[in-house]
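USER:
I would value a second opinion on how I read folds in token form. Give me a protein, with the fold worked out from its sequence. Write it directly below this note and I will take it from there.

ASSISTANT:
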Amino acid sequence: MSVGTPRGLASSGQKPIAEILHPLSSAAEPLSVSVTVNLGGDKTTRVEFDLPEYCVRRRYQDFDWLRIKLEDSQPTHLIPPLPEKFVMKGVVDRFSEEFVETRMKALDKFLKRIADHPVLSFNPHLNSFLTAKDLNKRQGLALLTKVGESVKYVAGGYKLRARPAEFCAMGEYLDTFNQKLGTIDRIAQRILKEQSEYLTELREYGTVYSSWVGLEDELRRPLEGVAGCVTTCCGALEDLGENMSQDFLPVLREYVLYVESMKNVLRKRDQSQAEYEARLEAAILRKQEDRTPMPVEVEKCQDKVECFNADLKADWERWQSNKRQDFKQLLTGMADKNINHYEKCQAAWESLITLLQDKQTEDKSSETN
């Protein structure tokens, strides 16, 4: 995933590299993953990085540290969600190969989305995440706050006048989209469960024909043919279930988490607007009483709201574009997998028809002779 020249600087400010602290890496979390991120260009375009591409091995808590730092230092931007640490729908054992592979793909996608972002890719915390050799044991991630105390104090008792229409539309879309995703996810879970139960029965069904062969010598070839068809159908159904659990469901879950991330940014934008309105009203009252000029803090709050609006709109368009691309790829892949499944099953049973026709021809020939 390549990153070009940024279209704008980080709007909320970035901390000096010396102030960046790393999460614990020698703790009990045993599972780590390797990810590769391509930053594009060379030293002349990305002077803050020594290499255009990095392959690093990090624990889940390191990714969690990076996301918290990005959310703290870039509050006006949409930070991609992380996959859940312990539970991922469609996977039971978090130490199984399937779970490790699924979560590795999700973490790799998380990092590539950051590397593809025109602002987040230049955040110094990403630099430290990719370039640090030894991650020091640190604590206190819970001390990070999502909203500054000043905002909580000023806007805590203030009710937002009205969210702008375009952001209201965003909120309504997210609610509807989340509801659709939840419905699809629940149905897909039921389908996956029923497929698993059917697969168990189908395997037992094929075993019956295999064991029957020894009792019917004249029916040996047809019985073996049926058993082979059932085995082929079992393999095709197993592949279809693996695709749903490892490719389809994780994408649905990622976008459910994405909706929560987007709603969180919307709430922070509303808090920023509420702070500005509260300060503005207080300043207007003071100005009416003693004719004092408008405080600088009010102008800063206004700039912050405008910055929030601009960044959120840009990230919304980027998110919509990524969503369309992801779901187009997801649905196309699902269609291809289903077609492949039914083609394998059809070919297996068609071969059985040929076998039975040949057997019928042989029997007629034997009767004639």
Q: What stands out?
A: Confidence is low (pLDDT under 50) at residues 1-31, 41-45, 88-92, 137-156. Residues 296-368 form the longest helix (73 residues).
